[in-house]
Amino acid sequence: MGCFIIAEAGVNHNGDLKLAKKLVDAAAEAKCDAVKFQTFKAKWGLIKSAKKAAYQVKNTGQEETQYEMVKKLELSEQDHRELIAYCTTKKIIFLSTPFDRESVDLLHRLHISMFKIASGEITNKPLLKYIAKKQKPMILSTGMSTLGEVEEALTWIYEEDNTQVTLLHCTSNYPTDMKDVNLRAMETLKKAFQVDVGYSDHTLGIEVPIAAAALGAKVIEKHLTLDKEMEGPDHKASLEPHELRQMVDSIRNIESALGSGIKKVAEGEKDTRIVARKSIVARQKITRGEVIAEEMLCIKRPGNGIPPKYMGQIVGQKAIKDIEEDTLISIEDITFHKE
Fold it and tell me: Which residues form the AFP-like domain (predicted)?
């Protein structure tokens, strides 16, 4: 089964349902498996005096508070229903990340197939346990966390008899510098907790998610925007539609290239194998009845005759017919005799 690729629309709809649907279009056209939004109520998620993150200030300025910024990005229940229906017509899975209990209940009521949990909630024991009780698959991002904190979060989830967990390695900086990616930590998560792992990417470009797929990521998540120059906190660390399509195509190519792991002759190299390998060839004319000596032979292309490794078995045998110079030796040309 291939990597499950999520286009993270997040809040890049800027509170506009029409923009949200265009993001769905872009994700579907890029052949992503799912498109993901965020479900929250500002009043349940942050105090009104909460400061913006540095990247939010850089991308949106300081004229408004984080509360005011987030409030404008809420999606209503009706918005969710319309988006779910629209995703169905586009044959792409609708997902969303809940940030409070009410949002969990809304998504559960709307029969969402799985829950994606943001990195910032990894220490939110009450929310993690509340989601785990819904007994649906959970994809948990692990940005900003230590291995011990991940272990603690998994313990809380497992206590609710829910073991359907995939961990996403993540670096929660927008955009993420290459030196901070630490992609091998994804493999560490897999070894430590024996669960499926993936990668949630915030770097610029598409190289790192492609590398994650090559390293065995089961899930890849990448932010999507219609235009990086749009107003909002996450647009600049997102891919535009043509870039997302390139990422998906590249990941699918990598998956195909990884293959089965069995070392065998590929179908496409069978012809090359004949051309590139060599066979035992008559260096001179060998007449019928002659005993073949090593100096009568040489090794040349193509490789559809007797392989060179059998040179020792050919030397000392008798020719049963004339063998012309510069022709492949065949079994029919010689008779094997016991000394």
Answer: 279-337
